């Protein structure tokens, strides 16, 4: 899967596809970028795409589809009920995961809404390796709470541990004993642990967690949204998976997990969401919410064309030459940043590169959102749009006090097959310039703070005029260059 170059010094990832449709990008001059980030309330979510050069805010719904996915979209069977498209998708899911039952939803968080609504009662706990923003919001909305059980090294930015998303098994057993199984709504295993740097969970750990759930009569739920990269890491880092095919691994997960759900904006490079299971009882409990919140049972809010792309994309997940691209390009970016001495989450995981803002900006307290400040600085310096994954992405405690995040990261997601190697190099180069000028970067404060999922649309202001100073230094160093 890693193609070897003849000249030792030229080991770089190789694209295993060719580009046949392109979209023009715009790199605005830095003075305009400064203006754009101000207009966006210093929130990269509020930037307009026309003002963004490399959009690395997410890999969700923005991966390049394959020719076969696009072709499949043209044969979609557009009907409200009983479409052939839905039957084709069910067949693909069965083939890939080996599971019998399927409920459609418009995207991943819609699955979470239904899971929380069906299974979480007020006062109950949910256990997971780590929370995801939308997951936690749905669980707390139902009066439940989240206990995180990731092993301590998962929260260490610099590590050589290959599966930093793994559950702390002894702690899990202890917590179950303390809380009692009946007070636990479910255990959620998040593949490719998003908020701690896209770090994978080993198959061995997943199987152990599922087994403990079984022994204690607790439901196990796999969030497979980031499973694709996780599969690559299982195949390349885990002895147990060496002689298993990708399909064997997926079938094993389909067999041991009570429920699997995923965002098809990530897994399958399409758009939509799915809840799948071999347990008819669980499916029946959730079923009535689909027509209520999503749409009829054969589309659940998804566009049929997306469902066709999803069916093909799921099958393509079995092809290591497809799924190696994300991790290898992410590894390249992480290596470049590391080579430049920039603190970055290691080892490289899936999803994207994660820059350690707290290590870069020790002069900015967490109350001034160092990761968000760094994300605005990076946009100003490069036109690259990253995402804050730190305190700003947290919810405040019930008493209104700030909940400081364990890690302050700027995520540079890697939409698959979208950027070329020279674009990735440009990104690393601009981060390096920023790193060399890090003392110029200052903090942010709220101008308008929403109550729920504030990171999506909250507006902030820089504390002082550091952004102007940063732009002036850029001009000094880069002359006329964009
Ligand atoms: N679970 C995980 C692990 C995710 O990463 C996401 C989305 C979801 C659930 C929700 O799925 O967006 O389809 O509603 N992550 C995106 C991201 C938003 O950019 O990391 P969704």
Overview of this structure, please?
The protein has 482 residues and is of the alpha/beta class. It contains 19 helices and 14 strands. The chain has helices at 30-39, 67-73, 84-97, 108-119, 133-141, 169-179, 203-216, 227-237, 246-256, 280-287, 289-294, 304-316, 320-323, 325-339, 357-360, 370-382, 421-436, 454-457, 466-478; strands at 54-55, 101-105, 125-128, 145-148, 184-190, 220-223, 259-263, 273-277, 352-356, 384-385, 387-389, 409-413, 444-448, 459-462. The chain is globular, with a radius of gyration of 22 Å. The two termini are 36 Å apart. Bound molecules: ligand F0G.
Question: Concise description?
Answer:
By secondary structure, the chain is α/β, with parallel strands linked by helices. The protein is 40% helix and 12% strand. It contains 19 helices and 14 strands.
Topology:
Elements: H1 30-39, E1 54-55, H2 67-73, H3 84-97, E2 101-105, H4 108-119, E3 125-128, H5 133-141, E4 145-148, H6 169-179, E5 184-190, H7 203-216, E6 220-223, H8 227-237, H9 246-256, E7 259-263, E8 273-277, H10 280-287, H11 289-294, H12 304-316, H13 320-323, H14 325-339, E9 352-356, H15 357-360, H16 370-382, E10 384-385, E11 387-389, E12 409-413, H17 421-436, E13 444-448, H18 454-457, E14 459-462, H19 466-478
Parallel strand pairs: 1-10, 3-4, 3-5, 5-6, 6-7
Antiparallel strand pairs: 2-8, 7-8, 9-12, 11-12, 13-14
Helix pairs in contact: 1-16, 2-12, 3-12, 4-5, 6-7, 14-17, 16-17
Strand order of the largest sheet: 2-8-7-6-5-3-4
Could you tell me the number of beta strands?
14
Question: Kindly, what is the distance between the CA atoms of the first and last residues, rounded to a whole number of angstroms?
Answer: 36 Å
Query: Mean pLDDT, rounded to whole units?
Result: 97
- Basic shape: globular
Count of separate DSSP helical elements: 19
Helical fraction equals 40-55%
Q: Strand portion, in percent?
A: 5-15%
Secondary-structure-based class equals alpha/beta
**Radius of gyration, taken over Cα atoms and rounded to an integer in Å:** 22 Å
Give the cofactors and ligands: ligand F0G
Major sheet summary line: 7 strands, mixed
The low-pLDDT segments are none
